[in-house]
Design brief:
4 helices, alpha/beta, 7 strands, 162 residues
Length: 162
Amino acid sequence: MEPIDYVDKIDKAYQSQGYPPYRWSVNEEAPLTPLAKPLADCTVSMLTSGGISYTEAEPFNPIAKDDFRLDEIDPGYDENGFQIHDAYYDYRDGEKDINVIFPIVRLRELAADGVIGRVAERLWSGFMGRIYKRTHTLEEAAPRFADELQRDGVDAIVMVPA
């Protein structure tokens, strides 16, 4: 069986809908910033792009483009109180156990076990969907998000892509 070149497949699918060829981001380097203190002393947050929202909140639009919505999630919230709306992955297992795509209980357990110092005051769900505005992401949305993480004293973040 030949592997599927999903990048090419996605690009062709969008071109068939009238979109121009996609300019994929190419990062020549990924600078590593080591933790300044032991993980057991760190405040840790989490971000999922899996279309997760509170059950009583407006769901994410699973086919939205350039949706920069970013929901704050209370880290103590009941793990059974979430909904998932996405059209690009099979989230049936996540509906049975939200920790599959948003490991909120596992993060609390890491704090309780002393593996991490503490869970941040806010966890996050957003940057969901097809985001094509790289300049907006790099120059506006990501720096705003980084400011919020700094405001919460976050030392490390778990990024859970969908």
